[in-house]
Amino acid sequence: MKAVATFLCLSTVMVLMAGQVIALPLTAASSSLLLPKCPEATNYGFLIFARLRNPCKYLCQGYPIRFEAEDNGTPCQTKKVLLGECLNGKCVATLPPPPPAPAPAPAPAPAPAPAPAANVNAAEAAAGEPEVNDEEPAAEEEAAAAAAEESS
Hints:
The protein is 32% helix and 13% strand. It is of the alpha+beta class.
């Protein structure tokens, strides 16, 4: 009886090992030999702990029981990584987008042109040789005379 139980246990182990070898190739295959991704199981049963621990791997449907990595870039969240993405079957933290660059300061307004120091006659300016008019306009003379009368 002991020999029969040993034979059954060894047979079971050999069948399981053969199933694992067939299901998961040991060497990296070329892209043409890769199998398509398996469909995700709808009922995890007692294996739900594996999905909760690593959200970037899912249980495949059917036999044998196996897990497959989610696509790269799939959003994920764990206790250690609050916001992340799946990368090669692991949840990695993503950096927040950089803040927008501050708007450039507007260019300063050009300074006004300085006022001319002396009056120039329009006719002389058109002739090309402006002569400086040292006479003050009449309005300025009247204002100066009124100020002189008030002070006296």
